[in-house]
Amino acid sequence: MKKGENVRQMIIKETGNQNIQLVECDLADFDSIRNCAKSLETASPQIKQIDLLILNAGLVTTKRSTTKQGHEMMIGTMALGHALLIHLLLPKVAPGSRVVFVSSMAHKWGKIDLNDIELEKAKFNPMYAYANAKLIELHFARALAKYLRQQGSDITVNNVHPGAGASNHVLSLFYGILY
Fold first, then answer.
1. Rounded to two decimals, what is the model's pTM?
2. Which of 64, 89, 93, 167 is most exposed by smallest CB count within 10 Å?
3. Alpha helix locations (H) across the chain?
4. Does residue 15 fall inside a structural domain?
5. For residue 114, what are the domain limits?
6. Which residues belong to the active site?
7. How far is Cα 165 from Cα 169, in angstroms, rounded to an integer?
8. Domain count, the chain
9. CA–CA gap between residue 154 and residue 55 (Å, rounded)
10. pLDDT digits (tens, 9 = 90+) for 11-36
């Protein structure tokens, strides 16, 4: 939360808007996601609508690990965590708004095995797990866009690939492949 508070203070300084709130949300924990959505509803009643929702979870684990609810960590965070958060926040998303999933071209390397979605049977490969999580996220975004169109909504859903960089995520992927 310290990093978030620093960013909040920077935004306040840059914009002069004192009404910037920080809400904690651990996308690897469904209870935390529910608490986040609830706090936006109860503790922040002045937030009447969401005009832009950016879903930007990204992590790489070099060894298979699980979320509090037992899902593979990358799938649980980047795919299932995002899906639950948007499900809970969708009623607050204003007409004409945008929902943006920050994705990755890595989805092209994903291949979902319906008999082993959580990657419990095969030898764990961080690149494969990351690619599958991003592929699942992409499919969810497409399904959400289709659902919203069918409901007559003008909310736009986008997937964006921000480009590659020398981040700790990239180094973790290569570490996992090489070692």
1. 0.81
2. 167
3. 2-15, 30-42, 73-74, 82-89, 126-150, 168-178
4. no
5. 48-178
6. 130
7. 9
8. 1
9. 19
10. 999 999 887 878 889 999 999 999 99
